[in-house]
Write a structure and sequence with these properties.
With 402 residues, this protein is mainly alpha-helical. 46% of the residues lie in helices and 10% in strands. The protein is built from 17 helices and 11 strands. The longest helix has 42 residues. The chain is elongated and about 80 Å long.
Length: 402
């Protein structure tokens, strides 16, 4: 109406709108700075805690006899700090600091061998260090001597030499909280019978030959290398065997077994068989000569006639085999067949394998140990060999216990 006061607009001017936007931006920046500061403080706190956890700068410690037995692994190359972290992770100690403080200046910790150790949860750092360095703390340690068979060996006088299957079983045993647990020999045998060579990790160059052997246990003979091994007591029978076969395959290949055909004419698997014969037939100083006898006899298709191959399939063994034993036809008896046995007859050591790969030079076809000191005579003529046998019998080397 005429003479009335003009109505004020509710909209902000462009200038006012700009002032409001700038104020809002300042408030947002302040909130962003506050959030950033909070995150930095939070992350710094987490970092301090993590650092203390990792390097053991905290000194929390348990007291008392502990709660339960546990198996802990010490890995090759681990430092004392690494071991302390493992002990913390496994619930053995309350902090890495407690373990490191107790380990300081302890020379035994510095010489700890890789492997598996029986420990106890919730014990003090000092007790953990003491327990780890005890003589009987290590478990799962397996030693396979050269020349062992998978099965036990019984001699005619009743002496029993534990086979590889039994050695694995014994190494698997651990007493936890007064309860002894072991992988039994029967479990290992069942795993061998029920598992194919590919699943075990047997070398590619051995798979077809292994499958061709009718005996489900003996077909794996010689494919686990002699030496020292570490087994996790918590593994199943199949897991233990797979570990041994796969690691043995890697070791055999590293020794050059896969390339032996170029040097001796023998396939890798036949070289392993030859090495097992060498291991059972000779002293280490004579390994290369025995290897040459094998190569020479195979070259002229002459039977090897090794008593060790006769013994392999016998229930009771001895050095001197009988005419009846030598007449038995088996996949291993080289008196009753030409060529090499169907499988290795033992687990050969590195020295025997190297000899099979690199035989000595010579024309020998015969050898015999002539005294109880292990003296072995090598000859190229049969009449000379017969004379050596007479000497051996005179020295009581070939006497039979039957």
């Amino acid at each position: 109406m005429p003479g009335a006061e003009p109505e004020k607009s509710s909209r902000l001017s462009r200038r006012d709108r700009g002032r409001v936007r700038r104020a809002e931006l300042r408030r947002r920046r302040r909130r962003g700075v506050l959030v950033l500061v909070f995150l930095v403080v939070l992350l710094a706190g987490i970092g301090v805690v993590s650092y203390k956890y990792l390097v053991g700068s905290t000194d929390a410690d348990f007291a008392g006899p502990g709660t339960a037995d546990v198996v802990v692994q010490v890995v090759s190359g681990q430092t004392t700090t690494d071991i302390a972290s493992t002990m913390l992770d496994e619930g053995v100690v309350a902090s890495t600091g407690a373990f490191l403080s107790a380990a300081k200046g302890n020379a035994a910790i510095d010489s700890i061998h890789p492997g598996y150790y029986k420990m106890r949860t919730e014990i003090s750092g000092a007790d953990a260090v003491a327990k780890l360095t005890e003589a009987n703390a290590r478990v799962g340690a397996l030693v396979i001597p050269e020349g062992r068979q998978l099965a036990d060996i019984t001699t005619v006088d009743g002496h029993v030499t534990p086979g590889i299957i039994r050695l694995i079983s014994e190494a698997s045993c651990v007493d936890r909280d007064e309860r002894l647990t072991c992988v039994e020999p029967g479990e290992l045998q069942d795993a061998l019978i029920g598992t194919g060579p590919e699943q075990f990790g047997v070398a590619d160059w051995a798979v077809d030959r292994v499958k061709a052997v009718p005996d489900p246990l003996r077909r794996y003979e010689g494919l686990i290398q002699a030496g020292s091994w570490d087994l996790d007591p918590d593994w199943t029978a199949g897991e233990m065997l797979t570990h041994l076969f796969t690691q043995s395959t890697a070791s055999f290949n590293a020794m050059g077994l896969a390339e032996t055909k170029d040097t001796t004419g023998l396939s890798p698997y036949d070289t392993l068989i030859a090495a097992s014969l060498i291991e059972r037939e000779a002293q280490p100083q004579d390994f290369p000569k025995v290897a040459r006898v094998i190569i020479n006899r195979l070259a002229v298709d002459q039977q090897l006639q090794f008593d060790s191959t006769v013994n392999y399939a016998l229930v009771s063994q001895e050095v001197a085999t009988t005419d009846e034993d030598r007449a038995r036809v088996t996949p291993w008896n080289t008196y009753a067949m030409h060529g090499l046995p169907a499988t290795p007859i033992s687990t050969p050591g590195e020295g025997a394998i190297q000899a099979a790969e690199h035989p000595a030079d010579g024309d020998w076809l015969y050898f015999v140990t002539v005294d109880k000191n292990g003296t072995t005579v090598f000859t190229s003529k049969f009449e000379d060999h017969e004379a050596s046998i007479v000497t051996a019998r005179a020295n009581g080397v070939l006497d039979s216990g039957r």
